[in-house]
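> Could you send the Major facilitator superfamily MFS_1 prediction when you get a chance?

Sure thing. Input:
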Amino acid sequence: MSKYRWTICALVFFATTVNYLDRAVISLLKPYLETEFNWNSGDYANIEIAFKVAYSLGMLGAGRLIDTLGTKMGYALSTFLWSLAAMGHAFVSSTFGFSVARAFLGVTEAGNFPAAIKTTAEWFPQKERALATGIFNSGSNVGAIIAPLTVPLIAETIGWKWAFIITGAFGFVWLLLWFIYYEVPAKQARLTKAEFDYIHSDVDDLAAASITTQPKVSWFKLLTFRQTWAFVVGKFLTDPVWWFYLFWLPDFLNKQYGLKGTDVAFPVAAVYILSSIGSVGGGWIPLNFMKHGMPAFKARKTSMLLIALCVFPIVFAQYLGQINMWLAVLVIGIAAAAHQAWSANIFTTVSDMFPKRAVASVTGIGGMAGGLGGILLTALVQKQMFVYYESINQLDKAYFIMFLICGGAYLLAWVLMHFLAPRMKQISLD
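Output:
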């Protein structure tokens, strides 16, 4: 049987890699930008908040836009705009300018995950969606791996502005491949009938594959379902943890262990290599449970509970780091891997619980909630706490509090999601 669906997965993986490469650049350029613009932790937190506010609002609109335009044009438009935004960072000359550039990047990058999850729902049967999601979601780790291996080197050799320009340009390469290879299954001439039938093997009426002809669903109607709120709560509590890793890990290594410039490359890359393994592994776990006869909802819930437990050891990161820095890197890497495994499953719960025509909209609503959680964590905890503890030269206490938050967030999310959607039944929108 042809397996063209995995070609589509590779395209989404590439887009997600570029998406995270572009957003990770600023964290690695932070030392250079601090020197040039006299930033403190509060200035950097404000720029981070600008990105998250725009990303959160963009998520809500992006999900609706993707459901309206379809995956092909919606994904292309989002990638085109965020690539322009990424390159635009090179042309600003003030702290306020960076806030504006980050906001534009945030609102445009918001289209990636609604489009990616909708693409996966269109191209994969239910039993393979977590694995496909884990594979494409590992692109976020690959982007975060490429960034520390390249961005400091570019900044050291030809300047920090070129780091933004070069990384932003990759999105245009993806656009070319997207238009060459992508089309929805019902219109894809390269797809065999056998694979088309396999993709829709868990749909009673194959006519439902033509999702573009079905009516759209309002946000208000979607918010009346407990299943929507289960996804919203899960994203609200756990997305901020990933934001913390992405924006503050290089700073943690710098402040705790004195690593600067290219010195942070290998420790940061190691964390995201582990994350990539976790992303794919997170998709494999429920698939393996289902192959052994476990119902899909139970396989998903069991997997997410096991994953949540794997995050908790991060509370010991600093203690282990006193023995050896690489032990801290290892435990943070395991926690980051668990987050990506969690993401592979929580994203798939949307297509488990909702018809395909609502997947991008629900993903957008949950993505907005995750962004809002990130904003609150940064504004109410990180910004105030980091500035305070930095002023009294006890920044290690701020990081310890953050690691405690990271360790408990997933278990709390799992409990609340289980309460809201015990069996993750798919709803009817008719």
